[in-house]
C-alpha cells in the first residue's frame, strides 16, 4: 500500500468518528498547549530581562547595599544589617576611581505629583546625580538633561516620564511648567522617551530630580545605588569592578578577610540569575506538560485498540484481498500519528493564544519561539506513533480467517 493511500484511509477513518477523535485529541492538545504557552512566556521573559539590563550597557555595573535578587529570608535579614551606602561613598569612588568612565547614584521613592487641580498618584520619584540619565540610557526627547550645576545647587528642576506629561501636561508645552512633588515645586526641563510597561506596570510614571534636592526633601538616611560605567566590557569591566571593590572596602572599613558589606553586580550576573529562575520555572512546567502528553498518548493507544477490535472484520477482508501485515501496520500507525499531529497543531495555536492572553491581561512579556512550535509538532507526532505501535502491530498480526469470522 502506498503512503498516500494509507494517509487517505487514515483521514477517512478519523473523519468518520469525529467526536471520538476530538475527545481523544484533548490530552495531546492540553500537553502541547502547555508546553508552547510556557516556552513562549519564558522566552518573552528572558528577552525582556536581557533587553532591560543590556539597556544600561554591558560595561555598566552597580554597587548597592542589597542584591537585586534575594532568594531566602535569612539572606534578607543578613543584608538588612549592612550599613547604608551614602552619598559620601559615591563621592569617594567618583574622586578616586581611575578606571571609571562614568559614575552616578540614585535613590527612589513613591510620591504624589500635582499640577493645579490634577494629580497622579503612586508616581516614582527618582533622585539622580547629573550623569545618571545617560548611564541608564534615558533618551530625552524634549528639553534637556541634568547638568552638574543642577546637582551642586540642588536645583528644583525635573525630568518626567510620558505618563506624567500625558496626564498632567496634555495639550501644553511641558518645558518650563511647574509640578509639585509631595508639595515641593519643580520646573520641568525635560521629557524622557516612552519606555512602555513591564508585567502590566507602566515604566513611564516617574519624575527625576537632582539627588541633592531629593535628599533635602526625603532625608539622607536611606541607601543609594551607585552606577559605574567601565567604558568597555570584558577585562576592562573586571578591572574597574575590582578597583571599585577595593575602594568601597576601604571607605566602609571592611576588615581583611571579611565579606563585602555591599553588593557589586554586573549585567551578566543579573541576567544569568534571572534566566536561571525562568529556566527552572520552565523545567517544572515542562515536566507537568509531559505528563499531559503521556496521558494523551495512553488515551490514543486505548482508542486505537478499540478501533482495532471494532474493525477486525475489515482487517480480515483487506488481508483476504492481498493486504500485507506491513500495510495494516502502516494504516493504523498513520491514524494514530495523524490524530496526534492534528492535536499538536491545535495545541500550538492554543498555547500561543494563551500566552498572548496572559500578555494582554497582565502585561507579562511573551515571544513565540519557532523551535518550540516545530518541537511541539514533532513531539506530538512522535507520541502518537509511539503509543500507536502496539495497536497497529496487534492489527497487523491478526489471522485473516479468524478476523473474517468476527461479527
Automatic annotation (TrEMBL):
What residue ranges are annotated as transmembrane? Answer: 21-42, 281-308, 329-362, 368-390
Q: Where in the cell is it found?
A: Cell membrane
User: Which stretches make up the MacB-like periplasmic core domain?
Assistant: 21-245
Q: Which UniProt keywords apply?
A: Cell membrane, Membrane, Transmembrane, Transmembrane helix
Positions of the ABC3 transporter permease C-terminal domain: 287-397
For this record, the Gene Ontology CC terms, alphabetical, are: plasma membrane
Molecular-function annotations in GO:
transmembrane transporter activity
Task: List the membrane topology term(s).
Answer: Multi-pass membrane protein
Instruction: Specify the superkingdom.
Output: Bacteria
InterPro entries from the entry? ABC3_permease_C, MacB_PCD, Macrolide_Exporter_MacB
Is Transmembrane helix set as a keyword in this record? yes
Instruction: List the PANTHER family hit by this protein, alphabetically.
Output: ABC TRANSPORTER PERMEASE, MEMBRANE COMPONENT OF TRANSPORTER-RELATED
Q: What is this protein called?
A: Putative ABC transport system permease protein
Organism of origin:
Granulicella pectinivorans
Amino acid at each position: 500500500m502506498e503512503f498516500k493511500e494509507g494517509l487517505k484511509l487514515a483521514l477517512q477513518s478519523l473523519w468518520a468518528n469525529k467526536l471520538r477523535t476530538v475527545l481523544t485529541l484533548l490530552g495531546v492538545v492540553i500537553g502541547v498547549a502547555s508546553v508552547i504557552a510556557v516556552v513562549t512566556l519564558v522566552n518573552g521573559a528572558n528577552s525582556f530581562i536581557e533587553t532591560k539590563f543590556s539597556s544600561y550597557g554591558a560595561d555598566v555595573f552597580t554597587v548597592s547595599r542589597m542584591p537585586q535578587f534575594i532568594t531566602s529570608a535569612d539572606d534578607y535579614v543578613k543584608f538588612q544589617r549592612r550599613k547604608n551606602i551614602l552619598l559620601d561613598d559615591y563621592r569617594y569612588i567618583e574622586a578616586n576611581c581611575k578606571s571609571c568612565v562614568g559614575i552616578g547614584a540614585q535613590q527612589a521613592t513613591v510620591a504624589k505629583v500635582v499640577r493645579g487641580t490634577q494629580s497622579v498618584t503612586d508616581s516614582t520619584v527618582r533622585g539622580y546625580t547629573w550623569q545618571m540619565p545617560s548611564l541608564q540610557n534615558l533618551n530625552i526627547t524634549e528639553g534637556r538633561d541634568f547638568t552638574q550645576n543642577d546637582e551642586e545647587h540642588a536645583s528644583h528642576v525635573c525630568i518626567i516620564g510620558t505618563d506624567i506629561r500625558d496626564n498632567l501636561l496634555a495639550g501644553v508645552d511641558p518645558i518650563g511648567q511647574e509640578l509639585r512633588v509631595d508639595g515641593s515645586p519643580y520646573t520641568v526641563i525635560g521629557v524622557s522617551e516612552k519606555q512602555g510597561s513591564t508585567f502590566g506596570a507602566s515604566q513611564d510614571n516617574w519624575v527625576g530630580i537632582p539627588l541633592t534636592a531629593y535628599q533635602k526633601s526625603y532625608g539622607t538616611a536611606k541607601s543609594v545605588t551607585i552606577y559605574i560605567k567601565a567604558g568597555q566590557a570584558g577585562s576592562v569591566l573586571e578591572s574597574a569592578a575590582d578597583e571599585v571593590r577595593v575602594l568601597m572596602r576601604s571607605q566602609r572599613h571592611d576588615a581583611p578577610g571579611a565579606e563585602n558589606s555591599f553588593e557589586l553586580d554586573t549585567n551578566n550576573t543579573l541576567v544569568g540569575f534571572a534566566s536561571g529562575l525562568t529556566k527552572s520555572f520552565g523545567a517544572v512546567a515542562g515536566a507537568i506538560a509531559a505528563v499531559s502528553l503521556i496521558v494523551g498518548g495512553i488515551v490514543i493507544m486505548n482508542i486505537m485498540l478499540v478501533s482495532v477490535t471494532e474493525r477486525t472484520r475489515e482487517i480480515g477482508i483487506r488481508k483476504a484481498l492481498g493486504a500485507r501485515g506491513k500495510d495494516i501496520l502502516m494504516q493504523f500507525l498513520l491514524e494514530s500519528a495523524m490524530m496526534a499531529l492534528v492535536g499538536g497543531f491545535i495545541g500550538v495555536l492554543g498555547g500561543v493564544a494563551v500566552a498572548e492572553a496572559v500578555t494582554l491581561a497582565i502585561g507579562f512579556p511573551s515571544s513565540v519561539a519557532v523551535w518550540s512550535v516545530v518541537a511541539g509538532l514533532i513531539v506530538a507526532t512522535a507520541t502518537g506513533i509511539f503509543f500507536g505501535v502496539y495497536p497497529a502491530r496487534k492489527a497487523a498480526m491478526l489471522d485473516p480467517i479468524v478476523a473474517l469470522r468476527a461479527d
